[in-house]
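Request: Show me your protein:
***
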Amino acid sequence: MESEEYAPMSGSNTICTATVLLETGMVPMKEPITQLTLDTAAGLVTVEAKCEGGKCKSVAFDNVPAFVFELDYQVLVPGLGEVSVDIAWGGMMYVLVAAASVGLKVESRYSTQLVEIGERIKRAVQATYTPVHPVNPKIKGVSILAFTEPLVEENGCKAAVNTVVVSPGRFDRSPCGTGTCARLAVLHARGQLAEGEVFKHRSIIGTEFTSHIRGTTRVGGYKAVLPTVAGRAWITSFKQVVLDSSDPFPEGFRVGDQWQMAPSSLL
C-alpha cells in the first residue's frame, strides 16, 4: 500500500512480506531454501528465500513481466520546459527521469528539489499520457516516478543509483523492487543490459537490490523482460491496530502540512 493508492505490486514489500511470513512461523520455514507464491493484483509472484537459523538471509522474487511503453517521451513541464522521460511497467507504472537532465543528483542534499520537481514532472506526464496495461486494462496511468543516475561498471557487473518519488512527496527508502524491474526493461530496450547480466540497484540511502533478466517474453504488443530481484528485510516492530466505534475519524484524515493536495480535498 502506497500513500495514495493500492499498488498492483510492490517488490520491497514482497521481500518484507516473505520475511515476516517465514520468520514469524505463519508459513513454515525450510532451510536452506523456502519457496512460496504470493498473489498480487499484478499477477502471481514466486519467491525463493535463503534461510539460516530461523532468519531470512535474502529473499528473491520472480516478478511479472516488465516492459517499456515509451523511450525518450517529451513532456512540457511548467517552469522546466521540455523534459525527456521513459515510461515503463514493472509492477507499477513508472516515469523514469535522468536526474542530471534536470540539473539534479540522487543525493540527500537535493531532497527538496527531487521531490518538488519529481511531482511536477509526474503531473505533467499524467496530463498528457495514460499508459494502459495491455492484459489488465484496469491498471492504467502513471503513479510513481524514479530519478536515475547513469549505469556504471562495477566489479564485473553493472550498477546504478536511483530514488523513487512517491506522492504526495517522499522517497522510497529501498532501491524499489518494481522500479528496479521497470529499469531492467528500459536498460534492455536500450541494449544496455543483456539477459542474465547482474544489475545492482541502489537507493538514495545506499541500500541495494541485486537483479537480473531471467528471460524475455511479450505482453500484448510489447516486448517484455522477466525480472528477478533479490534483497533483504528485517522485522523492526510488532504492532496492533484497533478501531474504536466512537472514533470520529474511522477512515483517517489529511491536513495540508503533509498532504500536498487542493484545499477542497483537505479538512
About this structure: Residues 66-228 form a domain with the Diaminopimelate Epimerase; Chain A, domain 1 fold (CATH 3.10.310.10).
